[in-house]
Write a structure and sequence with these properties.
The protein has 10 helices and 28 strands. The protein has about 450 residues and is an alpha/beta fold. It folds into 2 domains: about 150 residues, FAD/NAD(P)-binding domain, CATH 3.50.50.60; about 200 residues, 3-Layer(bba) Sandwich (FAD/NAD(P)-binding domain), CATH 3.50.50.
């Protein structure tokens, strides 16, 4: 039986991990995971990479180290033919097409960023969904500091103004990390002053972190405001131009950097599937089966799975996706072996957010936490959820060293070293007296 999993996020990887156990006992199964990247990204810690709190390789796990029995294909999913039970994958530098046949298909493609067709936003904004996004933002912060520091820089304000759109978990954690990083870095830039720095969070609701309730949202706003973060509530981004970031109230913020965390959309591939959808996401039942298409399953951010407690779809969070992955794997095995499938039933355990400067907010089993205790809970819980002992140790060590030393200011650029090529003329410079000097001794 051939099982193909599309997507290397929480849902796809945890489904593969569960099936990995079955492969040790059942040689009749063939499981293939298809993902764009060859690693699993632990997204809750992404903002810490952007803020230089963690090394960029410490929050990713190579899929080939996580999965020893599951086959892995790094590539882009081009199309899915649910009628013929085929998946077309393009891989390699030349985008070679490869067709995968399946008996059971797990769709866990996640979501993509939505810019809502706002003028200039897609062209100019930074996003925070991938490891590359976090590295690009970190490089941008350092680039702005380097460009603004020389005495010849006459207009510093746009370079030192950073706008973050979205007051949810990603936006709040990102703006807190950006604010901490930039203000701590000023010590090493003698021509810059704290008064030159402006960090703005734009949120379309009355209070940030609405998922945590008004009380914790107000607490987070108060703490961030006390650290000189401007919070613009009941406001939206209207567009971006050379003049800066334009807000819905007509204000223009002269800024060179906009970080967009204000919206997601369904993966474009889902629009090509003939199955039922709700707001662009695949409709699945309580077993995560896609109705009308036997052998097709959907989970995570790209699926609508009904919550029997509320009658509403489960929220698109990592804690739901990883549990959906485990349950869908068991349901596939039950379908193959003629066993009983399990309904997905789960109630959110808790929600946590880090708001910088060793401060956090959390709601766990209905109990609110704030301040240092919430920040400690954030780090403890997410460290325990990070896959593989090796990565846990590396992250814990990074956090310990962060207490002792200042944040790193190195730009991780991928430019190659400069080279030059001379036409051959006369005696080669390395040849002296009939002997050729090794390059290493020159």
């Amino acid at each position: 039986m051939r099982i193909v999993i599309l997507g290397g996020g929480f849902g796809g990887v945890y489904a593969a991990l569960e099936l990995e156990k079955a492969l040790a006992r059942d040689g009749s199964l063939e499981v293939t995971l298809v993902a764009r990247e060859n690693f699993f990204l632990f997204t809750p810690m992404l903002h810490e990479v952007a803020a230089s709190d963690l090394d960029m390789t410490h929050i990713v796990n190579p899929i080939r180290k996580l999965l020893r029995r599951v086959k892995f294909v790094q590539g882009e999913v081009e199309s899915v033919d649910v009628g013929r039970r085929r998946v077309l994958v393009a891989h390699g530098g030349e985008h070679h097409d490869h067709e995968l046949e399946y008996d059971h298909l797990v769709i866990a493609l996640g979501a993509v960023t939505n810019f809502y067709d706002l003028p200039g936003v897609e062209e100019h904004a930074f996003t925070m969904k991938s490891l590359g996004d976090a590295i690009a933002l970190r490089n941008r912060l350092i680039e702005c500091l380097e460009e603004a520091d020389p005495e010849c820089c006459l207009v510093k304000q746009p370079l030192l103004t950073f706008v973050v759109a979205g007051g949810g978990f990603a936006g709040v954690e990102t703006v807190a990390g950006v604010n901490d990083f930039v203000r701590e870095a000023l010590e090493f830039y003698p021509n810059l002053d704290a008064a030159d720095v402006r960090v703005v969070l734009v949120h379309d609701g009355p209070v940030i972190l609405p998922e945590l309730g008004e009380r914790l949202g107000v607490y987070a706003q108060t703490k961030l405001t006390g650290r000189k973060v401007e919070i613009r509530v009941n406001t939206k981004i209207a567009g971006v131009s050379d003049a800066g970031v334009r807000l819905s109230d007509g204000t223009v913020i002269p800024a060179k950097t906009l970080v967009w965390t204000a919206g997601t959309a369904s993966h474009p591939l889902l629009a090509t599937l003939p199955c039922q959808k709700e707001r662009g996401r695949v409709a699945a039942n309580e077993y995560m089966e896609v109705q009308g298409w036997p052998g097709v399953w959907a989970l995570g951010d790209c699926a609508v799975i009904p919550d029997p407690h509320t009658g509403q779809p489960y929220p698109p969070t990592a804690q739901h996706a990883l549990r959906q992955g485990r349950v869908v794997a068991r349901n596939i095995l039950a379908a193959i072996r003629g066993g009983q499938k399990t309904r997905f039933v789960f109630k959110t355990i808790g929600l946590l957010a880090s708001i910088g400067n060793r401060t956090g907010v959390a709601q766990i089993m209905g109990i609110n936490f704030s301040g240092f205790a919430a920040w400690w809970l954030w780090r403890t819980i997410y460290l325990s959820k990070l896959p593989r002992f090796e990565k846990k140790v590396r992250v814990a060590l990074d956090w310990f060293l962060d207490i002792l030393f200042s944040k790193d200011l190195v730009q991780f650029r991928t430019l190659r070293a400069p080279t030059i090529s001379h036409a051959e003329s006369g005696t080669p410079p390395a040849q002296r007296g009939g002997e050729v000097t090794p390059a290493t001794t020159r």
